[in-house]
Amino acid sequence: METHDHQTTPQKSIFAQLQESTGVKLLMISFLTLILLIPSTWIQSLISERDQRQKEAAAEVAEKWSGPQLIEGPVMQLPYKMTTKITDATGKTSFKEVLSTIYLLPEQLNMTAEVVPQILKRGIFDIVVYSTKIHINGNFPDVELKKSGIAPSMVLWDKVKVISGLTDFKGLKNSPSIKLGDSSCAAEPDFAEENLFAQSLATQLNRAATQHTKLSFSYELALSGSGELNFLHLGKNTNVTMKGDWNNPSFTGNYLPEQRNISPNDFSGSWKMSNFNRPLPQQWIGDQANLKDNKDKAAFGVKFLLPVDQYQKTMRSAKYAILVILLSFIALFFMETFRKTAVGLLQYALIGAAMTIYYCLLLSFTEQLGFNIAYLIASAATILLISMFIAGTLSNKKAAIVFAGILSIFYGFIYVIIQLQDMSLLFGSIGLFIIVASLMYFSVRINALKEKTT
């Protein structure tokens, strides 16, 4: 009786075979990358939350210091009486006196502002506030009563006012005295005036002042504010000059300065506008024109930006998170393929977790040290951690050094894109093209390597 010895070859489990399959592993890596989108989205929400907290801190400071200021006016207000004919349901006719108002804008309006910005701290947040002195002068034209069908006797000359407006009276540091013609008149808060400005300064004209043709005016405002300083274009000809000790101004509003100069220490700007681009007539009655509704169309000024918007840069960096993680996974996959060493899915997941936590490090260090230093620290710490992990996993220091170099290129590339503004799209597109070309080259090398081994 013969006996036959049968040697059985151990067969690999289905899971082990799946792990060794290139296509399956790429699919699993892609799935893991999609999973890491979830914490990346959470981090972006955290950055937005911190940015909102900074805005809330700015609002708290503005509430106590003073908010953004809009310099409005002056506008001359001439009340008059008119008699209207009223016929009731029975056909009986009666006459009633009705009060109405003529509004007259300046013919020439000149404003000069010297701004002294400074940074206040609210916790860890920086808030820009400022103090300024604004000199305002110009003149009003003759009111055209005949054009509106109004007789001079109908005007209540003893109730004529010159109205100016501010956004926030909290920031007013002086008691303005307005020189009208040859006389000086004190300006008082006028909370009853709702047709023109939210917060108004009113000056009652005396009869002598109202007799002047082309009534001149001149006054000075000492103000504090925060964030931005704006003006209204109300003159038939409006000239504004502003200068300040700030190197990061943003000219905003419906008009840009004709001349501007920004140096490392200060800035200046000058505006010149005519009534052809003013959204209001020179003179109107009652509600024929609404100044409140046209403020946005007539406003212009300067916003005082912080030198670096830390949260904007951190958010831009976080938006590239999935790209950096995916490219790092692909680089690691190519490395293990060339070196014929296996890196498990768990190791990929841990590396992805480290690259996700990187953005938490970046955000927290940015709030304390600024974006540039924070980016260097967070990148160096993450690259060191991952390279040491790969050195231990693959038992190969050379592979760890190569991968550390690859990560350094990726993070350096993202940093350059973030620093660039106008050219970021161009450099980003070129960089991605080079990366895709490199991936195509290495994929061809992998195919050639497989053909040699078969």
Structural class: alpha+beta
Mean pLDDT: 84
What is the CA–CA distance across the termini? 43 Å
Taking all Cα atoms into account, the compactness measure Rg is: 35 Å
Number of helices: 11
Global outline = elongated
Tally of individual domains = 2
Strand percentage: 25-35%
Task: Provide the low-confidence segments as ranges.
Answer: none
Can you give the helix content as a percent range?
A: 40-55%
The biggest beta sheet is recorded as: 9 strands, mixed
The ordered H/E elements are HHHEEEEEEEEEHEEEEEEEHEHHHHHH
Strands, total number = 17
Folded structure, characterized:
It is a single chain. This protein has 454 residues and is of the alpha+beta class. The protein folds into 2 domains: 20-53 and 311-453, no CATH class; 66-304, no CATH class. The protein is built from 11 helices and 17 strands. It has helices at residues 14-20, 22-35, 37-64, 207-210, 295-298, 310-319, 321-339, 345-369, 371-394, 397-419, 424-453; strands spanning 69-87, 93-104, 108-122, 125-139, 161-166, 177-180, 183-186, 188-189, 199-204, 216-226, 228-232, 237-244, 249-253, 259-262, 267-274, 283-285, 299-304. The strands form 2 sheets. Strands 1, 2, 5, 8, 9, 11, 13, 16 and 17 form a 9-stranded mixed β-sheet that branches. The protein has an 8-stranded mixed β-sheet with strand order 7-6-10-4-3-12-15-14. Strand 3 and strand 4 (125-139) form a beta hairpin. Helix 3 (37-64) runs antiparallel to helix 6 (310-319). The model has no long low-confidence stretch (mean pLDDT 84).
